[in-house]
Amino acid sequence: MPKIGVLKKNKLKRLLRFGFYTSLCFTVIFFLDTNNIYIEQVLIGFIFGILVGILEEATSHRSYINIALPLQFIIKLFGIVLIVAVMLLCLVLIHPQVEFEDLRAFLQQKEVSSPLILAIIVAFTMITYFQVEKLIGKNVLINYLNGRYRKPKKEIRVFLFLDLKGSTTISEKLGNETYYSFLNDAIYEMSAAIMETKAEIYQYVGDEIVFTWPLDKGITNNNCLRLFEKIVNKLESKKSYFHKNYGYQPVFKGAMHAGLVLAAEIGHIKKDIVYTGDVLNVTARMEALCNKHDANILVSKSLFNLLDLKHEILYEDLGAISLKGKDEKLELLKIHFSDSSFNEERKEIEKALKSN
């Protein structure tokens, strides 16, 4: 049996959640109205939710998001009305006693028109919820709703700062709009790796992306380090696509560190969940040292010591390094992945030693 990819699995879960939430809304509303729960309502709500979820997934494609918002709304409204019409037709076919010529009178009945209007309202409510979830992140939305960070909380988190190499040159050559598409395509290709390693996107800062994990999730299966490796490998596999469409291949450098942060909900006009702590400043300064040390990624030794199977990771110990604006030095490691030139050189040396 073929293995389902992480992206397809995530889409399937979203569809099931669409169906469950929509069915729950229908059930609650009809129960409040009739004091009864009918299995038909539950099933119809679930099927309707799945179909709305498919519509939302289809209209979330990269080619669709460039369409003007009013036109997007009209397309979605038409799609929802079409879904309602198809389900209504199915009900008519299931109940042959309803004549097609009586359909207009049938639709004008309050018992029929009210649920149809309700279905459209519920559909847009579900679409709005999942759009907001996608906009700010599932975990962030859940934390907003349950008020987790209304009072500041101390947490130990792993942070990965990822920055595009040569971004200024690429931006100048491509122009702003094409550069945006280039960067967006690169981030899109990271999606599977982000989901697979359970990373949270904390923020985008220009062409820099900040990922974070609670400490236990970040070090489990070396998720934090695997994310960078998977992103590098995925972008390498799409090299021909990027060269064909943009003339450049996106290559990122990164830095990774863990430490104590204060997590809190902040703002009044616009709310956000922010992390404050020295670990963020330190990781940013580490990332700035990548070019100096010719490194794709630098990892603090304190975080590296928490990872699994350290003997299988190729690295160079750079020793204690001074960071800008910091009195204390930090021990850093330069990580080499299996496809790096460092590993190739190592294999050649090992081969030469064995032949002697």
List descriptors.
356 residues, alpha+beta, Alpha-Beta Plaits, 56% helix, 8 strands
Mind explaining what this structure looks like?
- With 356 residues, this protein is of the alpha+beta class.
- The protein folds into 2 domains: 6-136, no CATH class; 148-355, 2-Layer Sandwich (Alpha-Beta Plaits), CATH 3.30.70.1230.
- Helices cover 56% and strands 18% of the residues.
- It contains 15 helices and 8 strands.
- It has helices at residues 6-34, 39-58, 69-94, 103-108, 110-136, 138-146, 167-174, 176-189, 191-196, 215-219, 223-237, 239-245, 278-287, 301-304, 341-355, and strands at 153-164, 200-205, 208-214, 252-266, 272-276, 297-300, 314-321, 330-336.
- Strands 1, 2, 3, 4, 5, 6, 7 and 8 form an 8-stranded mixed beta sheet that branches.
- Helix 3 crosses helix 5 and helix 7 crosses helix 8 (176-189).
- The radius of gyration is 26 Å and the shape is elongated.
- The mean pLDDT is 83.
- In CATH's first tier, which class of the largest domain applies? Alpha Beta
CATH superfamily of the largest domain: Nucleotide cyclase, GGDEF domain
Largest sheet: number of strands, sense, barrel closure = 8 strands, mixed
Question: What is the CATH architecture annotation of the largest domain?
Answer: 2-Layer Sandwich
Tally of domains: 2
Number of helices: 15
- Average the pLDDT over all residues and give the rounded result: 83
How large, in whole angstroms, is the Cα Rg? 26 Å
As a percent range, the share of strand residues is 15-25%
Q: Write down the secondary-structure element order.
A: HHHHHHEHHHEEHHHEEHEHEEH
Which structural class do you get from the secondary structure elements?
Answer: alpha+beta
The helix fraction, in percent, is 55-70%
Terminal residue distance: 46 Å
The poorly predicted ranges are none
Number of strands: 8
> What's the CATH topology label of the largest domain?
Alpha-Beta Plaits
Shape summary: elongated
